[in-house]
Structures are given as C-alpha cells and as structure tokens.
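The passage that follows is intended for readers who have already worked through the single-chain material. We present the inputs for a multi-component assembly, then the predicted structure in tokenized form, and finally a short commentary. You are encouraged to pause after the input and sketch how you expect the pieces to fit together before reading on.
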Amino acid sequence: MQSRIKFGMVGGGEGAFIGEIHRMAARLDNHYELVAGAFSSEAERSRRSAKTLGISADRSYGDFQEMAEKEQSRSDGIEAVVIVTPNHLHLRIAEIFLKAGIHVICDKPLSASLEEAQSFAEFASKSDKIFALTYNYSGYPIVRHARALIAQGELGDLRTVQIEYAQDWLSEKLEDSGHKQAAWRTDPEQGGQGGLLGDIGTHAFHLSSFVSGLQPTEILADLNHFVEGRVLDDNAHILLRFSGGAKGMLWVSQVAPGNENGLRLRIYGSKAGIEWSQENPNYLKFSPLGKPSQILGRGSPELAESAAKVTRTPPGHPEGYIEGFANIYTEIAQAVYAAREGKPVPQDVLFPDLEDGIAGMFFIEAALESSRNDGRWTGIAGTGI
Amino acid sequence: MQSRIKFGMVGGGEGAFIGEIHRMAARLDNHYELVAGAFSSEAERSRRSAKTLGISADRSYGDFQEMAEKEQSRSDGIEAVVIVTPNHLHLRIAEIFLKAGIHVICDKPLSASLEEAQSFAEFASKSDKIFALTYNYSGYPIVRHARALIAQGELGDLRTVQIEYAQDWLSEKLEDSGHKQAAWRTDPEQGGQGGLLGDIGTHAFHLSSFVSGLQPTEILADLNHFVEGRVLDDNAHILLRFSGGAKGMLWVSQVAPGNENGLRLRIYGSKAGIEWSQENPNYLKFSPLGKPSQILGRGSPELAESAAKVTRTPPGHPEGYIEGFANIYTEIAQAVYAAREGKPVPQDVLFPDLEDGIAGMFFIEAALESSRNDGRWTGIAGTGI
Amino acid sequence: MQSRIKFGMVGGGEGAFIGEIHRMAARLDNHYELVAGAFSSEAERSRRSAKTLGISADRSYGDFQEMAEKEQSRSDGIEAVVIVTPNHLHLRIAEIFLKAGIHVICDKPLSASLEEAQSFAEFASKSDKIFALTYNYSGYPIVRHARALIAQGELGDLRTVQIEYAQDWLSEKLEDSGHKQAAWRTDPEQGGQGGLLGDIGTHAFHLSSFVSGLQPTEILADLNHFVEGRVLDDNAHILLRFSGGAKGMLWVSQVAPGNENGLRLRIYGSKAGIEWSQENPNYLKFSPLGKPSQILGRGSPELAESAAKVTRTPPGHPEGYIEGFANIYTEIAQAVYAAREGKPVPQDVLFPDLEDGIAGMFFIEAALESSRNDGRWTGIAGTGI
Amino acid sequence: MQSRIKFGMVGGGEGAFIGEIHRMAARLDNHYELVAGAFSSEAERSRRSAKTLGISADRSYGDFQEMAEKEQSRSDGIEAVVIVTPNHLHLRIAEIFLKAGIHVICDKPLSASLEEAQSFAEFASKSDKIFALTYNYSGYPIVRHARALIAQGELGDLRTVQIEYAQDWLSEKLEDSGHKQAAWRTDPEQGGQGGLLGDIGTHAFHLSSFVSGLQPTEILADLNHFVEGRVLDDNAHILLRFSGGAKGMLWVSQVAPGNENGLRLRIYGSKAGIEWSQENPNYLKFSPLGKPSQILGRGSPELAESAAKVTRTPPGHPEGYIEGFANIYTEIAQAVYAAREGKPVPQDVLFPDLEDGIAGMFFIEAALESSRNDGRWTGIAGTGI
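Having made your guess, compare it with the prediction:
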C-alpha cells in the first residue's frame, strides 16, 4: 500500500455543499488525508471549519497564497490541493499551487471565462504536476460500461445523442433570499457568463463526449432566463453536430419543477441504443435492435473490466453519487502514485483533465455566441476527448 | 339513444394497420356501423376485405369516386366516411365525400403537401359537413387532465415544453424488404416530403399544443436521414418558440433502438411541471414546485370533468391506445348527432379538426424550410389551436 | 365471416360497472350483437337500461326466467347470455339458460357457495352448451406469453410463485354510504362468504395456475377484516403448495392504500424468473439466471404464437383491460362458431370454463376452512387447470 | 471535533465482501481509524491483509484472543472492534473484547444459535461497553423518514406489513464451486441452522419492526431448500401477527432469478400506505387514502429531522448502500463519544443493538420451529424494538 496523499483544500468551508462531497470522496478508498486548508476567504470562518475538520491550527490558512507558500516549504507539506471555490477563482489558485509543485484537483467548470482558461492552459502545459477536474458523473461504473459498449462497437454507427440535465431549484429567485449556493451561481462575476451552462451544462457536455467518444464540431443554442430579474440563463436548448455525422440534442434547465438532479443520457446507433439516468445510476438500459431491451446492472458478471474495477458492492447494493465521485479521486490517486515514481498518468485511468476543462469552456463560449446570433450554428474547437 | 352512424371506409383493407384500429375505435362505444367500403385500390383485394368485414357485396366498391356517388344516392347511404389511405390521397377523397354531403373522418397528417392542404381548406370552409382528423393521442383521459391543469393555471406561466416521439422500426432499410407500411411512408410521393414529420412529428406537435394551449410562432430544425439510401428524413431535432415567451424542444426519430412508440411530453411552468409517456398512458406525474411529485391516475376522484367523462374503467384498470382513439370517435359521433339536428359541434368535444390539420402542415413546411436553411428560425403561421 | 352472435344480458344495468365492460369487450372484435336483456331486478330500471342500449322494447325483460323462455321460443332468439349479477344469482340464472339451449358467459366467481357450484357442475356436465367464465386477466397477450415461456421450460423447474392482488377502495366502510358495488360485495348473502376472495382472490388464484401450469394441493390462510363492523374479510394472507414441490404466497387485500388494482405475478424457477403487473400490462420482465433481465413487450417479434394472435396493435401502442377482456370474448366466439357446426371447443382457445370456476370455489372454501382452523394446511381439490 | 475512534477488525481479510464495506462505512464520515486486525484465521493471509490495509506489523494479529489481550494492554489500544467473521464466531469474539473493555460492532445475525445468543446476552447486560449490530438497512435516510411518518400517525392504525428480501445468487449450488461466501453461508456449522433466515431474513425482520414500530407476537413459516443437496433453507414463506392486530407477510429467497438484492417493504394503515425498495433507496412512495400517491425523495425539504440529519447530499444526488451503512457507524461513534464522557447512548441515535440481535435470533428459532411443525403459529418472544 502506498502512503496516503496529504492534501489541502481551498474553499469548501462551513455552509458549502461540494467541499464535504470532495472530502467524503477522498476518504472513501483511503488514499487521501486532509491536513491543511484555506476554507473561506473570511479568516474566522476558515479557522472554525479547520477546527471542525481536525486540521491543526498552524495549517489552517486565511489565504490560499499563504497556504501554497507555507505548505511548499514544509517537509511534510501537502502533495495535492483541492479547489472548491466559486468558478472565477479556480485558475488563479490552481496556478499558484502548480507553481508550488503541488498537484491540483479542481472542481468544475474550469473557470469563469474561456480567455482565462486558455491562458492558464498555456501555463499548465509546461507543468509536470497533475491537473484533474471533477466531472464526477463520469465516475459511475455503469457509465464506464456504456463507454466500453460504444467503444467496442456494440451500438454500431452512432446516430443521435440525447442529453439532458434538468433541475428545479432555481425556479424561483432563490438568490435574493440569501441562499449562498444560488447567489454565486447566478452572479456573472463569480460563476461566469455561462450561468447554468457552467454549473451543470458542462457536466452533461462532458458526459456525452466521455460515453459516446464523439467529437462535437458545431453547436446551436437558444438560451433563456425565465426567472424575472435574473441576469444569467436558467434554461438552454441546444443542438449539436458531431464529427462523423452524428447529431445531438441537449437540454439544460434549472427551472423544471419535478427535476431534482435529472442528468440523463441516451445514445442511439445503427445496432443498438442505451439509456441512463443519474438518479437511478446503477442500471443501464441496453436495447439491441430487434431484440428485447436488457437491464444491465452495475455488478453483473458481464460488466466491462473498466466498469467492474470501479465497482465496490455486489449487484443490488446501490452505489451512489459519492461512490462515483470517489472513483475519480481514486484514479487521481493512482496518477499521483505514478508521479511519485516519475511515471506518467496510467493509461487506464479516466479522470477528466485540463483538456476536458478547456473543452467545456469552448462549449460555453460557443453556446453563448450561437444564442447571441439567434441560434446560428457555431464551430466548437478544442473539444478533444 | 341516437341511431348509430352508418359509415364507410376508404383504404384500410388487408394488411393495413390503421384501418382496423379505426374500426375498433368506432365499435367500442357503439356509435358507428360500418356498411360500405373501398378498402383498396385493387378491386379484388377490396372485395376480399369487404367480405371479411361483413360488408354486403353491393356496398363494396373498387373506387372511392364510385362509392361517394352510389352512397349519396342511396336512402340508407353512409353518413360519414373514414379515410385511411396514404397521405397524398387524403384530401382528394375528402373533397369528393364532402361534396356528396358526407362527414369526413381523416387519418393524419392532413395531406402530403401544404399547398394542397391550403387549397382544400378554402373549399372545406364552405362545407357544413364535419371534417375530423385523428390525432388520436389527444384522446387519452389523462392527457385531457393535463390540458385542464394547465388551463386552470396549475403550472403557472409556462416556460419550457419538452416533446419527443421516438421509434426504432425504421432503423434499417425496411422499405426495401417489401414492408408495405415502411414503403409508402418513406416514399415522398405517397407520404409527402415531411417523412417522419408527417408520420409521427405532427402527432407530437399537435399534442404539445393541445395540452399546453401555447401557440408556436417560430421553429428551427435540423433534419436528417441516417439510413443509407433513404430519401426522406428519419430523425428530426427541432427547437420551438411560443407566443408568450415559452420555449420548446422536439425530438422525432424512427431510428432510435429501444423506442417502440415513445411519445413523451413534459411541460414546465413557474409553479409546477408535468410529465407523461404514451407507453404507460394512464398516469401523469405532477410536480408542484417545492412539494413532492404526485402520480395522478386516470380514474382518480380528482380528475378534471373533461378527463373523467372520457374514462371507461375504474382506477388501476388500464385503458390503452384503442380506448384513446375511441374517445375521438365518440366525440365525433356527438358532433354528428348535433349535426342531425342542425346544431354546431358541441363546445365540450375536443376532437382535432381541419385547423389542427393545417397547423400540422405549416409545421412540416416550416421545419423543412428551416432545415434547408441550415437551421434558421422560421415563422410558423396558421397554427391556431 | 361468421354471422355475429346475438346475445342477451342479465344484470349490468344502470350504475353497474362490469356490465358495460362486458359489452365493450363483446363489441371490440365485432363477433357479438346485444339484442335482449333483463338488466335489473327492478323492471323500470331494466327498461331504461334497455332503451339506452338500443334494445327493442319487446326484448327488454323484467325477469330472467321470462327472458329465457321468450328468447328460446323466438326464431331469432339469443344464442348466448351474459350473466353479470351479484354472485349468488349466477348459477340459478345459468341453469335456466343452459336448459333453454343458450350458451352462458358468466362473470366470476362462479357462485356464492361451493355447494351450489358443485350441484350446478353436475347438471352442467350434461349440457352441450358452452359455459365460459370471465377470469379476464388471463386474456392479456403478455400473460399468454408468460404461460408459453413456462410451458416451453424456459424457467426450468418452478420453485416459487408470488401472487398478489391489492386494492384500496374498501379501506373505509364504503358499504355504509350507499355505494352499490361495495354493498353487495361485502354482503355474505350476495357476494358469498368468501368476501374479497371471491371478488378478487379468485382472479389471482386462476391467473397463477393459468400461467404456471401448476396444480395447487394445499392452502394455508390467515383471513382478516380490518374495517370495523365489516362482516366479510378484506385482507388475506395465504400460503400455497403445489404438486411437484413448488411453493407459493398469495396476498389479497382491499385495504391497502395506494393500490388501485394491483394484480401482480412473479414466478421463479431453476433457470429464470418472470414478473408481471396488471397496471402496466404490456410488458413482462424475464430474468434468465446469470444474464441481464429482459423487458419483453407485447408486440415484439419474439412473442409466442398464442400471445401474438391475441394482440391488436404494434409495439408501444398499449393495450389495456378492455382488450384483454375482449380476447376472452373473441375466444368464446370461436367456440360458439365451432358449436354451430357441431364441433367441440377448439384446442387453442384458452378462455376459462366451469372447471376453472369450480377450482376457484374450492380455493375459497379451503381458505375459509384453513383460516377457521387458525391457519392449518388444508387440502384443495378439484383445481384442474 | 472528537478525536477519531481507533478500531480493530476481526475477519474481513482478502476475499471477504463485508469487511471492506465496514471499512468504507467507518471512513466515510471520518470518525474512525483502523489500526489493528486479525483479518483471517490463517496467519499469513491475515498479515497480507493487514499490510494491504496499512496496519503496522505489530498490530496485525493471527488470533483474536491475542489481539484483545495486546490491544487492551497498549496505551494507544483500540477503543472498538468490528467483528465480521462467519456467524458462529461472533459472540465468542464479542465476549473477549467486551471483557477487555473494548466496544463491539458486530455484523449480523447476532449468532449461529439462540442458545448462545441468550447466554451472551446475560453476560453482556453486565458490561458497560457498547454492543452494536449492523442491520445496516435501517440506516437509509428515507427509511428513517418512513419510521417517522408511522410514529407520527400518518398511516393511521397499521393493518398489514408486506416485507420481502429476494436474491438469486444461490439459485445454483454455488457452494460446491469453491465460492467462499456461499460456502460458509450454506454450512449449518458456520452460518447456523437459520440459513437464509440468518443471512438476509433477519435484515428484513429487523427493518419491518424498525419502520413499523410493531411488536411481532406470532410467526408461521414454510421453509424450503430448493437446490438439490443443499442442507439449509434457501426460500422462506412466513406469516406474521403483531401486537395490536396488524398482520404481516414475509418472503425471503435466495433462489429467485432476477432479484439481485430485493429488500422491499410495504406498510398499509387505515389512513395511508408506504412502499420502499432497497434497490432504488432514495425514494418512498407515500399514498394517503383517496389522494394521489406522492414520491418522497431523500433530500426533500419536508423530510423528518431524524432523516434529514443522516442525509449527505442534495435531492437527486443518490445515496447508496455504503452511505446507509455509514450512518449506522456514525451513530455508533456518537455513542462512543458519549461513553468517553461516561454518558449513555444518546436518545436520538438509532443503531441496532443487542436487543435487536436477540429479537432476530428468536425470529429464526420460531420460524424453524413453526416450519418443523408444518406451519403452526408459534409465539415469538423477546422482540423488543
């Protein structure tokens, strides 16, 4: 067994949702140990969070710059940092830690603007440290199996990709009621111009590429904000074209009552179709043309190796959101272990990286541009998968 | 009890699917009696069908023109005709029967071209006979309830309408294998340029207007035919804009393996959302914002009057496709009964009519135009509901 | 085409539920014509019903005895009678019509007491007329397919049969509020001692034998009435043993809130399992051991011949309760057509008959006896399938 | 934050399933630290497991007796032990550790025999250490909500409880093929006479009491082993009677193809019914009589406090088996923290304890006795909840 990866966290203090998710994901397989943090831009709040989390006082920082410096200079300094701040801070922080020789695990989307993302990418390409991005939905075992089915040709030539990510929690103007999560997500400064595209659209976009293996080439978007007084979009209707001729449709909404976290993916090819829904994530419907549909369970003996190895429990013992997230963390750990020995990221780990992050920013940018142009097909570059 | 409506049928002979559906729908509530027919353009085939159906030999016609003339001249001649031929013949036949003073029940879509539809509409507007179009999916009781919920304001201001109609039976080039249904539907001459838009897209389009009460104003389409060698489209990705500001998304496909007859409708407003799927048509998911989702059953005591009155069985005793279809037929019968007394179509019957048919043709035309223009937003007129 | 079967009806007048279901089932495939009736024991009510149904005044009877006599003496008299009265009248009426040479279609259960049923069986065995019993749930196409799968050995040796039929409509003392359906069903005089066993338990019991092909040999029952003041049972917990060693469990309830008409059947063998629910009756879950579960649809190309031939619509066009009921009627018609030519009931029709009715009465009797004996295993005879 | 609980583990080495589940559950909320273990009765195997788990060599034991002694004598010795051996060893080990002043977390069922369980209970009642039993399914948030609904009277007077726990993995004689999990579970020496009752039946039995709050008084069982050559039962059909008059039905099977881990609970009262299935554990169907059924989600704002506090993620982000298990662990930690200060187990923690374990053993014993007596109602004592 490798020694655990000591890590720190920027953001994710009291009242944050995603910070604790990252911590649970890091703990689940026992590859990580949280030892430092700048949990909030408010020093007192950061300290309280650190105490609650059992971080020693001298490693509770009020400022990420200070944290990077001090940790870099310690012999037992952190080996990785997790960034779970509002979007506009991601890359400023990431750059500092990479420079300090510390691996970076960054929450999505990559940044609040494409410009910043591109300039960061130029810098990061020269770093030998790991940069991982937590598009966590790609960590579900059965999602991995779907990817394998398509890669093996079980669906034949892909024809259409139907993706959607629908929520309802922003159906009213929650940001006016002091709801912290709603506030920064609907503020262009902190969340970026993308609004819901950055918040959840990039998840859907990444997932569809991850599973289908298709390269998007053009996008057409009709973006709307339905809640009066809201600046950023809360609903997106998007068409996609992929290289090779497949087409796609993407619906993203945060104003669809009855949808809690409705990320759903359906892909149809000449030989078969698949359907998957994040809210019941252990099953995949697989429909070979002309034959009865099958319900493939995470944990079945027929699972692809790439799916089976990220599975923890027997069939019928449901794995959920945290387990999927933890799979990303564990794969990052495998890359860190390899890095300790000077080796590159192993071939068979599939955690999202900078390239995926850039692709997401191009997606947001192209969608905004298409919508500004009243729904003109707009080229989408850089979306390597 | 009114005396039953004697009717004849054009098309729908041996090997046809939809003809027998119409006959079952007509029989279910005992308002109709089939007494004449020109079931096929092949005389011998027509005669065989008539015999099987118990039609007397002198009312089995080889030709619809002849049928109209002879029936018009009989004292016990038919009061209505059902047209279930390929699309391009619908209106030629309808015109003849209307001229003969016979009510017309026509299968969808209205016609194979908008031009022909408009010219027919001009003629028909002067007729005092009934012209009904069997967009049958609007006949399901719980669809009626959904319409009532929205009309009563239970969903608040409508924001987005997500419609889809996906099938898989044309995933391969079935039309080359002598499959009659596939052959005429994929032939522009018989089915029209609309391809799958005419065959199933108009169903979805009508249903979304029927339930939402929204008036579509603009459409943007990306149409494709994925099966090699096919002339007409077999997949359509469409965006919609409605008057009042709501937006919509419509997916129509006949090449999506695992989808048998997947007509699904979801509508979201500021106060609640609804979801319905034709394949399990007795239930509606109703999600008031911030409250648990409810499963509304056809047959529940809370059902709207307009839904309850088209319901035949107690809760939990599923009604299906034929019952929904029969509801349209029974409502047409009520209009015929009214007509017998010189009265107009009753206010509370909701069967689709010529206006709905024209709307469907505008929809097809606008979608084709938008797609030809690489997905330009295109105005859609005449879609009164 | 054979000439339609002229039939009459006893019971099923105004306010009845099941009478209209029988009439719709009879109409759907056009094998029957309703020409006479004694729709109610109240003469005026019977006359009103007849008028509504378009029955000529001279064939509207106030009394079933009179109806049998007069119809027998007409040259155009009825060929069959449908009995939809409360249970205790079924066999008294059946006997009169059989004696008059008229085929009998009787609603379930056979009677209100085993004694009466046995004495009738003795009489009926000497009649050459058809006696059919409408355990209608055996008419669903996919139920037929399930039966075929088991008969073909696809499940291997059967091990356990889990059946349930749960409703909620008698959760309160509806019979006190003037609800006609509730009143006679909870009255031992009219419904029989069996209470819910007669009303819905026999449906479940018949279905499990029909599909499994298993012969029940012993039964153990714990019967209860939960609603205060109710005389008959409204909940039954039953264990079953079948010849050959399979075991079963049967739950019947009319006091289970949230269950509308929850008839569900699951059968497990050494090689596979199946699951079916009446409320979504077009699909069967088929789970071959060690392989993914399959969703078999009514209308799939792989359907057994016995299922395909009772299917009316393509895949994805749901058939419901009335269609299943109509399948029983159409099979009875095939037997009547055979009888016209002096031929026996065709081998391939599967409508339930007197033997099934007697089996149901034995089931009720044995369950009551077992429960009186505090749940002693009790032999169950005469349950030929 | 309290300092983490140092714990050791007996059993759960290489190839074990449940050991790693316990470790993940212990890690998730960061209340525990694994520092010692006797992971296998084979010394070499135990050592390998310890090494893999990062346990220092001097705390890797070949023998649990030795482990208890040495840990007791260390100043940094373990505060708790987790027992995940075959059933027949549970209490022998528990006794040793309790005597050593170490809290015990024991996998279910309590033991392989009632006799041993009772004698242990006598001993344990004198210990001031915690004894917790991991009936983990009671840890799901929505299960807690179901319990709260019933406790608050939302279901009215309870009438019937339908429980089932069906699996298929023992449909063939897996124990002959060297499958370790199957081997000990089907061996009366190691698993106990209860067979599947001990393995999964006690889970279902505990869950039904936990949620319903009902006290079982009598049981009637028909137990079977269907797989040829198997000594222990692999299918159980059970009826239950509860104090207060409610009745129940329990099906337990390991030979039902298509059932992966099918633990399902349905409870019906005079005012409402609930339904829950472990395989999609984040939702509860709640059906108030005469109103539409509701889908209650884990994470909804209306959740009972007792459920909300064991919830980690927002609505629609599914929590699974490990999270439910971890809730039990975290509640045990709260009891350990209380014990550190000499306080009793807090009132609001709900982890199963010795009393629940004894109840499960009485359940097994009574079921075996009833079945031996051909299904006689048999009293079931000691099942306090």
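Commentary: DSSP finds twelve helices and 14 strands in chain B. Residues 321-340 of chain B form the longest helix (20 residues). How closely did your sketch match?
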